Hints:
This protein is an alpha+beta fold. It is 42% helix and 19% strand. Strand 4 and strand 5 form a beta hairpin.
Amino acid sequence: MASQETWLAARLRQHLARPSVQSNLRAGGLVWLGGVEMALEVESSPGAEQLLARLGDLRFVLPSIEGDLRPAVEAALRRSATKTLKARAQELAAANGLTSKVRGISIRNQSTRWGSCSPRGLICLNWRLIQLPPSVSDYVILHELAHLQHLNHSPRFWAEVARLCPSYADAEAWLKRSGRSVL
């Protein structure tokens, strides 16, 4: 019982030490993209019905500047993630000779997982991977691709992960340190 209390106390300290996600997102608010926290830039032209928004190289349209911009920004990030994460997963599968084993790639809004792989070869990725550093999102994709060879977390699976992603321990450490909602 004492070990559980110690574990729980450590987890609570870790949770409280994490920066909280902003409740409302406004122009100039900070959003993570590609492992970098950047300000949401919003441009409006007199008489324009829509606003142009920018996060780094990502540009998109906002319906208005009134209220919380988080839903519109999240929708833009999800659209971008659908294109970029699918393409990156296909690229990594091809580079590692696994294309024939991938039966499909989907991008979803998972609340507790970064990714998953089904026994049928369906890879599911969390759209929030677009917000992580590229080396970390690549690790998650490669982790799921390794499940195409081993549908478990056995030593053989981890050997496959190490072959596909030699720096996986660094990415794992980053996820453990920063594994929080980043929007």
